[in-house]
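Methods — Computational structure assignment.
A single polypeptide chain was analysed. Its primary sequence is given first, followed by the predicted tertiary structure written as structure tokens.
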Amino acid sequence: MDARQHFSELLAYLQGQVGGEEGFTLAYTAEVSSFIRFNQGQVRQAGQVQQVYATLSLYQGQRHAESKLALSGVPEEDLTRVQQSLQRLRLILPTLGDDPYLRLNCEAWRSELAAAGEPLDAAAMAEQIVSAGCGLDLVGFLAVGPQYQGFASSWGAFGWYAARSFNLEFSLFHGNGQAVKSAYAGEQWDVQAFARKLDVARQQLEFLGRPAKALQPGTYRAYLAPAALEELVSLFCWGFGAQALASRGSPLQRLFNGKAELSWQVTMEERIEGGLAPAFTPEGPRQPLRLISQGRAGERLVSSRSAAEYGLIANGACSGEYPLSLRMHGGELNEQDVLQRLGTGLYIGNLWYGNFSDLPAGRLTGMTRFATFWVEDGQIQAPVNTMRFDDSLFDFLGPQLEALTREPELLLPGGTYGSRQTGSMALPGALLSRFTLTL
């Protein structure tokens, strides 16, 4: 299936059918994904999914309705589905009331980007994973393949995005049932980079055979690996949205009200280049934004609906007003020096089951899990039993933040429910002077 051609044919049909006082938008998503599951270091299940979805929205004045279609990728079949959907929307539209906050982007913008380079070879990647994991109880899941997104409107907007990426999440299990979890993701598979990831996990696996250390509730020096920091950042990043801030429901309210600051080391941005998300949304072209600048509040994500409701200027944010390609700047800490700089404390590889314990105060809670170790004098001593943490982002990204690792790690969403998710985060590891464990 030529996704770009398929999208163009659907658009051309609609342009010939809709006119006068009517307007339309067409959003398009497609993927050709290979999914490979590993167990005990061997391929246990492999399959491929090809799917296409389109969302057709019809507008007349301040009224609008939409229909989501599952398509086959065969133009003759899909044009019939689009025609039937258009007819249904025309019947529905007169029954609806006006939407007072509808603000359509009627600009004729254009954005088009397609990934270059060789296609990813899922079979070759699987062979390399099996070979590198020989003798290990490796359990994992690999998702790989091209993803496509398109958007067009009757007012001349046109966006197209085609990207290839992979996301491997894997765990190494010890004979006692404990595990080390890791991940490797990106646009180009590098067998040497994967081997380094696997080697770090293999080294950590050796410590899981030691008796676990039980810690008392309290505060401890800690290092949060990028995957652990992702769990925390993903909990509060929706707080950059204009609607959340205007309604005073954002966990970042104190920061944007000027009542709190973070460490000068913290700079976060919503980027266009370098991330794995389209340069557009149904709201229009996305804008690069400096969300936090050296610990101080920066720009916020503003959708067209929030712009209309609160008198702001829209900047292409998605309707949920959360970052699609968040990047946190790195610091001065070399990754190989993490344990020495930590000295004595906790090395936390992952955090799980995160939630808010006090949203207005920015307090987050959750559990430690895979690859959490007790470190003394720069050396891993023992795994740590699962414990609950409870701490404020204004503390662990504020005065408790000692250092950030130099190179942010690209982290892709692992969700595949309905379809593979798009977007990305690039986060460093964080060395904290203290982190609070409660039980």
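Note: The chain has a mean pLDDT of 95.
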